[in-house]
C-alpha cells in the first residue's frame, strides 16, 4: 500500500523548503542546547513532511515558534489532526517554561480548537509564562496566523527537583 509522502516510483517525496523566518525583533532560540536532543517528537525532523519548527525569543524574552503543519499531520481531510496541534502546544508551552528557567514537566494541558487548520500552513505559536507559584508554572499560548486563531491553550507545568536548566547544562 502506498504511504503518505511516497511518490509513485516509491521514492519519498519531500515538500519543498518552507519559510519559517521570524519577526524582525525576534532572536533565534536554540532549544536542543537548553533541553537536549530528546525534544524531537515535534521538532526533530526539520526537513520532513510532519512538522517543521523554528524557535525564537521575542523582544519580551517570551518563546515564539513558527510551525509548518505538513501533510503527515492530517486529521480531518486537508486539515491538521487535533492531536498534532495538542502535541505542538505541549512542546512549545513546556519549552517556554524551561526557557524561563523552570525545570518542569507538563501536568495539565487544556486545548481549545477554535478553527480548522489547513495543512501546509505556516502558523505562529505564541507563548507567555503568566505565573510561577511554588512548583506550579502557568503558561498560556495560541496558534494563530494573522487575525485567525486556530488554537488556544493553558498549560500547568510542575517543577521537578534537581532538573534546573543550569544544572543540566553543567552536567554536560
Ligand atoms: C523524574 C523524571 C524526570 C523526567 C524529565 C526530566 C527532564 C526533562 C528534561 C528535559 C525536558 C525537555 C523539554 C521540555 C519541554 C517540553 C517537553 C514537553 C512537555 C512534556 O511532554 S512533559 C511529558 C508529559 N508529562 C508527564 O508525563 C507528567 C507525568 N506526571 C508527573 O510526572 C507528575 O504527576 C507531576 C510531576 C506532574 C506531579 O507529581 P508530583 O508527585 O511531583 O507532585 P504532586 O502530585 O504533589 O503535585 C504538585 C502540585 O501540583 C498539582 N498538580 C499536579 N498535577 C496536576 C494536574 N495534572 N492538574 C492540576 N494540578 C496538578 C498538585 O495538585 C500539587 O498542588 P498543591 O501543592 O497545591 O497540592
TrEMBL record:
CDD domains: PaaI_thioesterase (cd03443). SUPFAM superfamilies: Thioesterase/thiol ester dehydrase-isomerase. It holds the Pfam family 4HBT. GO terms for biological process: fatty acid metabolic process. InterPro entries: HotDog_dom_sf (IPR029069), THEM4/THEM5_acyl-CoA_thioest (IPR052365), Thioestr_dom (IPR006683). Residues 78-149 form the Thioesterase domain. One of its GO terms (molecular function) is thiolester hydrolase activity. It is found in: Cell projection, Ruffle membrane; Cytoplasm; Membrane. This is Acyl-coenzyme A thioesterase THEM4. It comes from Desulfuromonas thiophila.
Amino acid at each position: 500500500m502506498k504511504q503518505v509522502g511516497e511518490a509513485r516510483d516509491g521514492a519519498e517525496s519531500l515538500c519543498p523548503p518552507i519559510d519559517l523566518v521570524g519577526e524582525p525583533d525576534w532572536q533565534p532560540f536554540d532549544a536542543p542546547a537548553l533541553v537536549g536532543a530528546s525534544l524531537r517528537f515535534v521538532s526533530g525532523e526539520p526537513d520532513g513532511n510532519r512538522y517543521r519548527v523554528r524557535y525564537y525569543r521575542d523582544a519580551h524574552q517570551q518563546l515564539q515558534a513558527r510551525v509548518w503543519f505538513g501533510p503527515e499531520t492530517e486529521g480531518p481531510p486537508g486539515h491538521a489532526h487535533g492531536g498534532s496541534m495538542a502535541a505542538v502546544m505541549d512542546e512549545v508551552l513546556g519549552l517556554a517554561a524551561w526557557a524561563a528557567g523552570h525545570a518542569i514537566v507538563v501536568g495539565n494541558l487544556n486545548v481549545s480548537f477554535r478553527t480548522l487548520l489547513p495543512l501546509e500552513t505556516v502558523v505562529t505559536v505564541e507563548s507567555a509564562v503568566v505565573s510561577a507559584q511554588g512548583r506550579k508554572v502557568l503558561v498560556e499560548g495560541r496558534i494563530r496566523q494573522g487575525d485567525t486563531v486556530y488554537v488556544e491553550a493553558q498549560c500547568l507545568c510542575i517543577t521537578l527537583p534537581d532538573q534546573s536548566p543550569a544544572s543540566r547544562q553543567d552536567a554536560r
